[in-house]
Design a protein that fits this description.
Distance between the termini: 66 Å
Structural class: mainly alpha
Strand order of the largest sheet: 2-1-3-4
């Protein structure tokens, strides 16, 4: 059985990260680990696993061999698990350019996981390390994806609003990052990068919802009013999510108000240019 390879292993995950909880639970269900083979690092006793670098385990998921004391972190832990489950991929997992690329992808997700899915609290002694370059990379990635989907979706609104282009949508998205960045700096500079990450996650999620309608548009046909109503529905969901996340960050209502005002003002400007 595959489980035998990890019978004496312990995988440490972030209990406040739904993604981490879900995929480690999937490892258990797949038979890779026993139920006791996974535990949140938040619940690890102070004297347990002394060989584990606690801060690194917060940043990169730790796989602990409880017999030898060997610890692997991050993408190396994942490759070790997947290599056991799918031995035919082992050569790929040892291919250095691939390992380097996937380590960057892993870090990109890991260092931004708390803005992708925000945690309810931050009372634990160890918290994920903030890496500015990965946050900026995340902002740029979500900015690009959002601008792309907005540009494509604007074609469905032809007749309701002026046709858009990638430059207009990129300027709108980037303008909101800059505008809200100024506001959060004035309101609570300490939370600036956390807030901007959360804000762009909302935009990214909204763009994916628009992407779903883009895929269905071939079946629906050209109905600008319908697509406008759907766009308003998505905007409403984004507004509610913005309220939820700013509450988690304890930022009050100022940022939600300015977020909504920015979007409303741009809509008025676009319509006036029609």
């Amino acid at each position: 059985m595959i489980m035998k390879a990890f019978k004496d292993y312990l995988i440490l995950y972030d209990a406040e990260c739904p993604m981490c909880s879900a995929y480690t639970q999937a490892f258990v269900k797949a038979g890779l680990f026993e139920n006791k083979g996974r535990t949140p690092y938040q619940q690890l006793a102070p004297n347990a696993c002394p060989m584990v670098d606690r801060q690194r385990a917060v940043n990169e998921i730790a796989l602990v061999n409880q017999q030898t004391g060997e610890v692997t972190y991050g993408i190396n832990s994942m490759f070790k698990i997947f290599g056991s489950a799918m031995p035919y991929f082992k050569p790929l997992f040892r291919f250095k350019p691939f390992v380097w690329l996937m380590s960057k992808v892993y870090a990109f997700i890991s260092y931004n996981r708390r803005v992708i899915i925000p945690a309810g609290g931050d009372d634990f002694q160890y918290q994920p390390t903030f890496r500015l370059r990965y946050r900026i990379a995340y902002l740029m990635f979500t900015w690009a994806v959002t601008a792309y989907f907005l540009t494509r979706y604007a074609d469905l609104l032809t007749g309701a609003i002026p046709a858009g282009n990638i430059y207009r949508e990129a300027l709108i998205c980037g303008g909101q990052v800059f505008f809200q960045g100024v506001i959060i700096t004035l309101v609570n500079k300490k939370e600036r990068w956390n807030y901007l990450g959360n804000m762009m996650t909302i935009s990214f999620a909204g763009s994916l919802l628009l992407g779903v309608m883009l895929m269905l548009s071939g079946l629906i046909g050209h109905h600008p009013l319908f697509y406008s109503l759907y766009f308003m529905l998505v905007a409403g969901l984004m507004f509610l999510e913005h309220i939820r996340r700013t509450k988690l960050l304890k930022l009050g209502w100022t940022l939600t108000i300015t977020w909504a005002l920015y979007r409303a003002a741009l809509l008025v400007i676009i319509l006036l240019l029609n």
